[in-house]
Amino acid sequence: MIRVAAVDDDRMLLDGLATWVRSVPDLRLVATAATVDELLRDLAGPVDVVLLDLVLRDRSAAAENVGRLVSAGHRVLVLSVWARPDQVVATFEAGASGYVTKDHDLAALAAAVREVYAERPVFSTELAFACLGDTRPVRPQLSPRERAVLLAYASGMTLKAAARHLGIKPETARTYLDRVKVKYHDLGRPSRTKLELAERVREDQLR
């Protein structure tokens, strides 16, 4: 049984999803919510796959929503009616396992859920075009802690203050920051100074 949760602010869609899932033997809808905050706050049991609407009325950033869900240990399948290519690519960079547009039929959605549950990424034609249309600089793959140190340091904090802010030792913060610099350097993107790192944060829309 694959335990599914859904985050969408369309009540009719959620009600329809609940009715449909009851007819699919290997899927079970265990939670629904209008926002990621609501889901994470009220979730009472384990979830295997979270269906996440790309654009929610609370104006939360899709990539940040994905990142929060992934950090909480959930696999994420993003759903949308339409999206800018950079939004779609950003969700994958944040850890989403799949992307499906809402014009697919329910059988295709069930198949996508099964793929994500099996830890196989779901790539669609829409995602391929989004990747081809993405003109942003190539981003390094940063761990959550590396990203946190980078954001704190690039915001103007000293490394010691950033370490204190994150509750880690200064030497640990230095290790994370050095890793960030190496990763950007390996992509040919300057990262030696705080100013250069702040520019990388702006380019990569990491805030």
UniProtKB/TrEMBL annotation:
Please name the PROSITE patterns in this protein's record: RESPONSE_REGULATORY
| UniProt entry tagged with the keyword Phosphoprotein | yes
Which of UniProt's keywords are assigned here? DNA-binding, Phosphoprotein, Sigma factor, Transcription, Transcription regulation
Stated name of the protein: Response regulator
InterPro entries named in the record: CheY-like_superfamily (IPR011006), RNA_pol_sigma70_r4_t2 (IPR013249), Sig_transdc_resp-reg_C-effctor (IPR016032), Sig_transdc_resp-reg_receiver (IPR001789), Tscrpt_reg_LuxR_C (IPR000792), WalR-like (IPR039420), WH-like_DNA-bd_sf (IPR036388)
Where in the sequence is 4-aspartylphosphate found? 53
Q: What superkingdom heads the lineage?
A: Bacteria
Species this protein is from: Micromonospora echinofusca
